[in-house]
Amino acid sequence: MSTAIEKAAILVEALPYIKKFYGKTVVIKYGGHAMINNELKEAVLTDVVLMKYVGIQPVIVHGGGPEITGMLKRVGKESRFVDGLRVTDEETMEIVEMVLAGKINKDIVAQINRIGGRAVGLSGKDANLFQAVKKLHKIRTPEGREEMADIGFVGDISRVNPEIVATAIAEGYIPVVAPVAVGAAGESYNVNADYAAGRLAVALNADKLIILTDVEGIMADRSDPHSLISVLRVDEVPNLIKQGKIDGGMIPKVECCLDALAGGVKSTHILDGRVQHSILLEVFTDKGIGTMVEN
Ligand code: ARG
Fold first, then answer.
1. Which residues does the annotation list for site: Transition state stabilizer (predicted)?
2. 76-79 long-range contacts, CB within 8 A, separation 24+
C-alpha cells in the first residue's frame, strides 16, 4: 500500500506535464485489445476524459477489427485478405462503414459521455475530413512477378481537412473519428486507422500522437521482457529495422510515427493498450510506460 505522501507525490509528478500539454492537441489511435475488453475500454476512455478536464485536447481515431469481421460473418460474407488488407467489395464496404462509423463510433461516444466527457462522433466523410484515392496495391506472384491486386474500396488518404475536428475541439468536445474516407465521386473507402491518426495529428498541429497496440512497445531484445526501449530517436529506427527488432505489424506503426514527427508532431508514443491506464502513465509521469519516438 502506498502512503498518503506517496500518492501525493504521484499526483504532483503530473504537474509539469499538465502545464506542458495544457491547451495542446493529442491524437490517440484507439484499437486492438483495449477496444474489445470492457475494463480496458473503460480505463482508456476515462483517461481521455481526465485529459480533457485538465485542459488537454484529446482526439480519438478508432479502429474496427473484430466487430467488422463478426458482422460480415453474421450476414454471411467472409473476407479475403491480401497482405493483411481486407479485400473490400461494395457490399463489404457498406457493412464496414455501418459498423465503423455507426456502431463502434457511437458506442465510444456514448461511453465517453457516460463517464462525464462531451464526445462527438465523426466519420472521415464528414466535411471532407479524410479524402482518399483507391489504394494501388502491388503483390508478388508465386513466380516472383510484381502485379497489381484489386483490393476494392481500400483507400489511401490523399487530403485531410481537419476543420470539423478543430471546430469540435474549439466548442469543447472530444472528437471521435471513424477511419472512413470519401473518394472523388463520393464513394467510401476503408482507410488504415494508424495512418489516419498520424495524418490527422499533422493536420491539427497536434503535439502528440499516441498509438495503442497489443505489445509493450519496441523491445531491444524480444526474448527479454525487461528490454523495452523507452525513448527512441528517429535516426535509430533504420538500424532497428535492419536488425529485425522492429518488424511485421510494428513497421507501419513506426512509419506513422516518423511521418507524424516529420510533419511537426513533437512526440509520438507506442503504448500497450492491454495495460490499464497506459495513457495516463505515459503522459503524466517522467518515465512513461511505452516507447516514445522523438526527433
Ligand atoms: N510524460 C512525458 C511525455 O508524455 C514523458 C513520457 C516518457 N515516455 C517514455 N516512454 N519514455 O512527454
1. 29, 253
2. none
Residue of minimum CA distance from atom 7 in ligand 1: 288
Rounded CA separation 123/136 (Å):
23
Q: How far is the CA of 4 from the centre of ligand 1 (A)?
A: 24
What residue owns the CA closest to ligand 1's atom 12? 283
ipTM exceeds 0.90, yes or no: yes
CATH number, domain of 139, equals 3.40.1160.10
Report whether residue 129 contacts ligand 1, using a CB cutoff of 6 Å: no
| Residue 2 included in any domain | no
Digit-by-digit pLDDT tens for the chain (295 residues) are 679 999 999 999 999 999 999 999 999 999 999 999 999 999 999 999 999 999 999 999 999 978 898 999 999 998 888 888 889 999 999 999 999 999 999 999 999 999 999 999 999 999 999 999 999 989 888 898 998 989 999 999 999 999 999 999 999 999 999 999 999 999 999 999 999 999 999 999 999 999 999 999 999 988 888 999 999 999 999 999 999 999 888 999 999 999 999 999 999 999 999 999 999 999 999 999 999 999 9
64 touches ligand 1 (CB under 6 Å): no
* C-beta of 290 in contact with ligand 1 (< 6 A): yes
